[in-house]
Amino acid sequence: MPINIPKQLPARGILEEENIFVMDLERAHTQDIRPLKIVIMNLMPDKERTETQLLRLLGNSPLQVSITFLHTATHKSKNVEASHLNQFYNTFDNIKDKKFDGMIITGAPIEQLPFEEVDYWEELTEIMEWSKTHVTSVLHICWGAQAALYYHYGIGKFELPKKCTGVYRHYVQNPTVELVRGFDEEFLAPHSRYTSTSLEEVEASDDLLTLSVSEHNEPFLILSKDEKHVMITGHLEYDARTLGDEYKRDTKRGLEADIPENYYPGDDPNQKPLHRWRSHAHLLFTNWLNYYVYQETPFEWD
Known about the structure:
Blueprint: E1 3-4, H1 11-17, E2 22-23, H2 25-28, E3 36-41, H3 47-58, E4 65-70, H4 82-88, E5 89-90, H5 92-95, E6 100-105, H6 121-134, E7 135-141, H7 143-153, E8 158-172, E9 186-196, H8 199-204, E10 208-214, E11 219-224, E12 229-232, H9 242-252, H10 278-294
């Protein structure tokens, strides 16, 4: 089934070239189908790229999915045209009276700041509190996962000696849990962050279950025991070029940027990186949509 997106959204052309079934909202409204309503809080600076990455994964499902994009009202994005936000995005005030089957809160390149010093932290906490009663399941990515762990469960983050950037091995801890159904016992996933979360603190929580850890013994996939929240501490949604583009961006800025680990063949930035985590990215999003959104959400919200 298709994902329902606006006809003029730039991601549409890319998705159609990849043979992903997309449908504009006007056509979707003529079909007698109850689509899953997913709201995406996009905090990433390159919003159009993140839109494409997430829609690519949400579109690989037999379920029809209708997308609403959110941006912050209390923070002005510097890397996207205001016309793009005005045409394709909402602010929280526009949607706070609605209910959604699922929500995604993305990462953001601000993890070195204390949470309370993020200029939109108060707005985000209001949205996370709202999600408790207005969303069936919430998927949190990277900094979004750290924010959820801190706000909902009181688990903080700590700074790493240097940026964690690369593609790393991960190991499934609880293979019978539906979120990791079909996962290999060992799989790859990319990371791009300056901070981390304590595995000991996560496992000490009565409310959380660790589903996967990285080769550095850090939590990667975390599920709340009420199945309301999914936290991913890395970036399974990244395409094959994203880590390389971030590396080149940082070097152009004169930053001391390390080559992403286990990313380029032979660690040679002149080589084309391979997309070695694609299948598990699709599987994770499909499992989330099926088991934690579709099978849990009411057909009609009260």
